[in-house]
Each structure stands twice: as structure tokens, then as C-alpha cells.
Write a structure and sequence with these properties.
Elements lengths: L2 H18 L3 H12 L4 H8 L8 H30 L3 E2 L2 E2 L14 H15 L3 E2 L5 E3 H4 L19 E3 L2 E3 L4 H10 L4 E10 L11 E11 L4 H16 L4 E9 L2 E12 L5 E12 L1 H6 L8 E8 H9 L12 H4 L3
Parallel strand pairs: 3-7
Antiparallel strand pairs: 1-2, 4-6, 5-6, 7-8, 8-12, 9-10, 10-11, 11-12
Helix pairs in contact: 1-4, 2-4, 5-8
Bound molecules: 3,4-dihydroxyphenylalanine (DAH).
């Protein structure tokens, strides 16, 4: 093979190897092999002296071109590496900073709270029941001992759909539905939406959530009720929270009470906050679903969920809970 063929082969081989170089280390190895002090270019130069005299000028030129070609190939490979391997600042973006995480959706704070409530009462042996939001007057009123012409049934205070159908105004409806479908013992909670035509402001909404509780068995007492609600409040708000029961009136319970918690503000202030109503199930209600009110007693309660959430998370306006502003929701 002639000197010229050797040079052509060398170029081809060097290019191939350069393409295969995947990291700076391999690039450096290549450089030493071809362009280094004892490299292939150097030894081609040394072989020039064996070339016949007539071919010497052309051979010298070819050897110089070899050196140039390989040097250029190396330089551009190096430049390509530099731009790929270390793109530290690209158009004002520092790619070495931690990336921004994509926002992943999560349960609404009200749903989280409902799950938590179900979990706490679940530990006390309550199962979860649900009822329809479109109800009839029997379940919303009559069976709950709220007779016709009672002020609570006023058309202006309820969302009637027709004469006998309405959006439920309280989750107490589920008490009736559960008792109609099973015999004692009954121990359920029923979280869900309720509807009342209230004017919307910071503390009122035409739709909000309640959690109803019902426990009917032989020998259930008011002491059981107080214990269950006290335990629930401590589990949800914290072990230091105190509860208070104030005498009250509801058609479906006798005696009835309102339950308050003593809330501790960050600045040290304390205040009693009403959470909802409760009491011993009125015998008329037990009889309305065919239970023997001589044999069974029960307690019931209905708590406002927004109230709990707003108190616990210091949310000042109920509308924040329903406006779906992710800047607000993302905090929970
Ligand atoms: N249903 C009542 C309301 O919406 C709350 C309530 C009071 C529920 C006493 C009960 C109860 O189960 O025993 O105002």
C-alpha cells in the first residue's frame, strides 16, 4: 500500500472512532492516539522520509492535510460535547436549579374533613350511611315529628321542587331512611349536603354540609351521647378542647341540647363555638319508623361541617370553600 492509501485509511478509521466517542474521556483517548506526541499523525510524518523523491511534495501536502482534517474533526467533536454536557445557562434559565413540580390534584378540604370525620366515628363503631338530596316531606319533616304548619316547613325557608318534594334541609332525613330499612341496633353517621335559601355571606351559604349521627339500641343514654361527641371533638380539634351541652329544642329529640366547643385562639383567647344540635331521639320518631319506643332508646346529633373546617383552619369566609380558587385550595 502506498503512503497515500495509508493516509486515506487513517482518516477513515479516525473519523469512525471519533464518532464512537461518547464522553470526554473517550475524546481525550482519541486525541492522544491520533494527535498526540507519539500519535498516528506524528508517525505518518516520520514515514515521509521513506517516500520516493518524486512523490515527496505531494506526500508532504497529504500529511499536512491529514493533520488539519483530524485536528478540525477533534475540535468540532469537543465543541459539540461542551454544548451538550454543560448547558448551564440557556437563555437565562439556570438548568441546574431544582425543577418546578407539576401540581397534582388532591381532595377538597371539605372532602378531606368528611373522610376524617368518618374515620373518627368509625373507630367508635359507627358505619356511614347516605341518603338522597332530593327528598320528600315525610323524610325531611313528618317522620321527624315536624307536623304540617310547623314554621320549619315554610316555603320560603326550603327549596321545594313541588308540593311534596324538596332539596333536603337537614341530614336528619337519613335517620329515617336507615331506621325504615333496618332493625336496632343502629349506629350510623350520615355526612352530606343540605340546602336552605339563606342569603349568602361570610357565614351563610344556600348549600352546606352536615354530619348526622344516630345510635339506637336498648339502654342508650344521654351520657353515651355526651361521651361520643366529647370524644369526637377531642379527636378532631385536639385533646385539650372542652365541650359544653346547652339545653335546647328540636322536634325530633327530647331532651335536646346544643353542643359547643371551647375554642382556643392563637392569641390565647377562648370562646365557645356552637357545632350543632343533639338529643335523645323522640319516641314519636321511633314510632314513626315502627320501632318499639318502650324497648329502645337512642341519641342523635347533627353537626355543621363547614363550621368545623373553618374553625380548625381559621378560614374567615365560607365562600372560599365553594369558589374553587386553587390558590386557596392548594393550602390543604
Ligand atoms: N337537623 C338539625 C338542624 O339542621 C340538627 C340536629 C339537631 C340534628 C338535633 C339532630 C339532632 O340529629 O338530634 O338544625
Amino acid at each position: 500500500m502506498s503512503f497515500f492509501d495509508d493516509i486515506q485509511n487513517l482518516i477513515a478509521q479516525a473519523r469512525q472512532e471519533l464518532q464512537a466517542a461518547r464522553d470526554p474521556q473517550a475524546l481525550e483517548t482519541w486525541r492522544i492516539r491520533y494527535l498526540g506526541l507519539k500519535g498516528a499523525v506524528k508517525s505518518a510524518m516520520q514515514k515521509l522520509k521513506d517516500v520516493p523523491k518524486a512523490d515527496k511534495p505531494a506526500a508532504g501536502k497529504a500529511a499536512n492535510e491529514l493533520k488539519q482534517i483530524l485536528q478540525q474533526a477533534f475540535d468540532s467533536a469537543l465543541a459539540a460535547f461542551a454544548s451538550v454536557a454543560r448547558p448551564r445557562v440557556l437563555a437565562g434559565v439556570d438548568v441546574t436549579l431544582p425543577g418546578s413540580r407539576p401540581r397534582i390534584g388532591h381532595a377538597h378540604v371539605l372532602s378531606q374533613t368528611i373522610d376524617q370525620i368518618c374515620e373518627i366515628f368509625g373507630r367508635m363503631g359507627f358505619t356511614v350511611a347516605y341518603g338522597p338530596e332530593v327528598e320528600d316531606e315525610r323524610h325531611n319533616f313528618e317522620a321527624l315529628n315536624i307536623p304540617a304548619h310547623h314554621p320549619a316547613r315554610d316555603v320560603l325557608d326550603n327549596f321545594y321542587i313541588d308540593e311534596r318534594t324538596m332539596l333536603r334541609s337537614q341530614t336528619s332525613t337519613v335517620q329515617i331512611r336507615v331506621m325504615e330499612s333496618q332493625q336496632p341496633p343502629v349506629r350510623i353517621i350520615a355526612p352530606g349536603r343540605v340546602y336552605r335559601p339563606d342569603t349568602v355571606d361570610a357565614t351563610h351559604s344556600f348549600m352546606f354540609h352536615q354530619v348526622e349521627g344516630l345510635y339506637v339500641d336498648e339502654g342508650v343514654s344521654m351520657a353515651d351521647l355526651k361521651t361520643a361527641l366529647d370524644q369526637f371533638c377531642k379527636a378532631y380539634f385536639g385533646p385539650d378542647v372542652r365541650t359544653r351541652f346547652r339545653p335546647s329544642f328540636f322536634p325530633f329529640t327530647e331532651p335536646s341540647a346544643e353542643v359547643d366547643i371551647e375554642f382556643h385562639y392563637d392569641d390565647g383567647r377562648k370562646a365557645w363555638i356552637e357545632l350543632g344540635g343533639c338529643g335523645m331521639v323522640d319516641p314519636n320518631v321511633l314510632e314513626a319508623v315502627g320501632y318499639d319506643s318502650e324497648r329502645y332508646t337512642g341519641y342523635a346529633f347533627g353537626l355543621g361541617i363547614e363550621r368545623m373546617v373553618m374553625r380548625k383552619h381559621a378560614i374567615p369566609d365560607i365562600r372560599l370553600l365553594f369558589e374553587s380558587d386553587v390558590r386557596f385550595l392548594h393550602q390543604f
